[in-house]
Amino acid sequence: MNLPYASKMDPTLLCVVLLLTGVVCADVQQSYCPPSASGMGSCKQWDNIVNSLPLVKQLVKLGQNLDGILVMPGDPLYENATKIIMNLRFVDRKPAIIVGCNSTRDVQAAVLFAREFGIRLSIVSSGHDFIGRNTVNNSLQINVYWMKNITVNKTDPESDTGASVTVGVGNSWGRVYEELDRHGFMAVGGSSPTVSMGGYTLGGGHSPICRSFGLAVDNVIRFTMVTAKGEIATVTKDGTSTVDLDGKVTKTTNGDLFWALRGGGGSTFGVLTEIKFKIHRPKYQFTQLLINYNFRQNGVTIAREFFTFYNKFVKTLSRQWGGYLIVSSPIYPNTIPGVKETPGSIFLSLLHYGNYADGYKNVKPLLDFHPEWRTYISVVNHTSFWNYEKTIKDTHYIRVYIFNTFLQDNSFTDQFTNTMVDNMVNNANQSGPALFGCTFAHIGGKVSDFPVESASVSAAFRSGLVSLSCAVASPAKIYDSYLINKAIPFANELHKIGKGVYFNEPDEYLDNWKDEYWGDHYARLLKIKNQWDPDNTFRCLHCVGSDQPLPTRPPPPQPSRPPVDPALVG
User: Fold this and answer.
1) pTM of the model
2) Where are the alpha helices (DSSP H) in 123-281?
3) Contact between residue 151 and residue 166 where contact means Cβ atoms under 8 Å apart
4) CB-based burial label for 462 (10 Å; 0-12, 13-18, 19+)
5) Which of 152, 169, 378, 529 is within CB 3.0–4.6 Å of 198 for a Cys-Cys bond?
6) pLDDT at 504
């Protein structure tokens, strides 16, 4: 697909792009020829403009040669292309150039173009990013949303399960689950069916079934990516094979890059284009247990007693059970003028995979816990993982501040109970309420079976029982600072109780981020980063190497003054 108005691009629009990327374009404005009925292509100055501005000439060439699309400010597609960002706190950021990639070749061209002209890169797929890593003002944004190939291999000797799926990183997990279900398989992926697999996997990737099958990174067989040099790299546990621009193939037997990509975070080592996962043929059907309590009921805050129970129950939960506990703040009566009482909620959505009799016995204490307090209970049988996943409803486009910690076996104490209840109650019941929602993603089980050094995710991720992410939603930009200031003390208390932070669901304001994300793995990750991206071409907030000084680059090529047609001057 060619660039819209490829050879007839409005020079004013080009000027915007040039100014954003640091190239002076006064001469373009001076020689601008207003579009006429015959079109911009008839302007005498057009060829002079294009030929005298290296960036413009290469930008037009980039657009004409893409399999995907090139979108810039002023293009009718631009506003929709920038609204893919799910956290509305960052949706106002405006890339200078968006390359909608439809092939690895497109990604390669975008990376090389950005490097040549010293333009900051950003990378986006489904937009599920909480702290704005995937969009940067004035950047060249690589959008891999359209890379949606799916290939199922039912007899793959490279997979220890005997089968695999190879997917373009623009796929949503829901799309992949549905295709695998047609073949009788399932994969370890995100609970949200609209999440794409690139950033999700690079951050580690917990799942409703990770307690039975490990994290997403534990199920990766191969990555395909574009490096900072524009090489196409095939990355496996046995080494990395790269193909440079001249077609030269270089192979190594070093598995460091494969290790780094499995937990080292997105937008860091290169641009993923494809991932090959091992897949699983289910031996059992799935059973979903749904239970809801009010946080506060009949004038009593029952959440405190629930957490006292949960602190013991979660340690006994078998690996056959995965899923979530979701808790939301209550608003007490007559505490906030004009605001109605809200009971808050304690909602369990647990998913069982295994022998039903064993599963029932394991959750019997939960079923016996104050049944008179329950406002809802349901048991739903699902014939497949996709049958479960397609019932999940995503929350899209919210303005939110999030924070996270991994709760360890020793985290579930009275201190934890009091921290949760007091913060959720006190922050909600005041003038200018801060209403929190917290999601407990159950990890542990098979996740903890893999050696700590098997992948770059932190030791705290491996040893944790719960990945706890809490969030405060903001109704509008003017409230952001106030609500974030309410969230930070809550977050700091949880960090003292838990250990480590999930890279994919992190605090935006996190002082000790290297240790929180990766612990002792950071030094090795930084060494690999400097080997594969010594110029820090790929960088983002709190990513490996992001605090390193950027190398000194020569300024972008500047235009020589084009000849000016006297007829266009005064």
Assistant:
1) 0.89
2) 173-182, 197-202, 210-213, 256-261
3) yes
4) buried
5) 169
6) 97
